[in-house]
Amino acid sequence: MPRDFSRTLRVAEQIQRELADLVRLEVKDPRVGMVTLTDVEVAADYGHAKIFFTLMGDSAQIEAATEGLNHAAGFLRRELGRRIKLRTIPQLHFCFDESVERGMRLSRLIDAAVGGDTPS
């Protein structure tokens, strides 16, 4: 079983690399803009893949980027099929990765708390 698990991880990493390339070079949708792919989770049967992305912007920009990526999912899946030799190319589902934003918010709170403790 560990062999299958590591293969799934390798496939997920390759999908992430190829998609990052495709999004950067091939997707012309202005809503997608400065998107960074942070992680890919592939189902054990390779039927579905969750692609996590982040971008700096407000909620309207995040929603627009999500729509743009999901709109391009068919094109991206077809191009993945040309670049990766798998029997089944997974359906792509894009999700905003809140962990980066949450980490920045916590960092700002810590900085503010530490800054408030120092004598002025």
Poorly predicted segments: none
Q: Estimate the mean pLDDT confidence.
A: 86
Q: What shape does the CA trace take?
A: globular
Helical stretch tally:
4
How far apart are the first and last residues' alpha carbons, in Å?
59 Å
How are helices and strands ordered from N to C? HEEHHEH
The CATH homology group name: K homology (KH) domain
**CATH topology heading:** GMP Synthetase, Chain A, domain 3
Share in helix:
55-70%
Give the DSSP E fraction (strand runs of 2 or more residues): 15-25%
> Order of strands in the sheet with the most strands?
1-2-3
Supply Rg: 18 Å
> How many strand elements?
3
Overall description:
By secondary structure, the protein is of the alpha+beta class. The chain has a single domain, classed as K homology (KH) domain (GMP Synthetase, Chain A, domain 3, 2-Layer Sandwich), CATH 3.30.300.20. Helices cover 57% and strands 17% of the residues. It has four helices and three strands; from the N terminus they run H-E-E-H-H-E-H. A three-stranded mixed sheet has the order 1-2-3, sandwiched between helices. Helix 1 crosses helix 3 (73-83). The mean pLDDT is 86.
